[in-house]
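Hi all, long-time lurker, first post. I run a small reading group and we've been trying to get comfortable going from sequence to structure in the token notation. Rather than ask abstract questions, I figured I'd post a concrete chain and ask someone more experienced to write out its structure so we can walk through it together at our next meeting. Sequence below, copied exactly:
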Amino acid sequence: MFQSWVTAPVSSNSRVSSCDCLAHRFGNAADRPKRVPVYPSDMTDAEWAVVRDAMPVPAWLEGRGGQPEGYCRRVMLDATCRRREAGRARRRLMSMACEK
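-- Answer (accepted) --
Happy to help. Here is the structure in token form:
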């Protein structure tokens, strides 16, 4: 593993979080381990509280069909944010390389 990928835990995110997303409470993610924040960009509990309330209620929870969620929404959002940041860094590197 590259040393630049190793990060120190952030104090506000350094503990194991008991996730209260729908997948952990009612869905298929209840048997998966609890969320362990790894990256400094991972959402804090306060950020998740704001985002969680803005997310739509899935159809299966209202009895309109469909399957319960299999993955934690919070983990998926953290991964999406990391992917977005990696893309930004790559584009910055490419633009710097093209300038030379």
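A couple of things your group might point at:
DSSP finds three helices and no strands in the chain.
Residues 1-17 have pLDDT under 50 and may be disordered.
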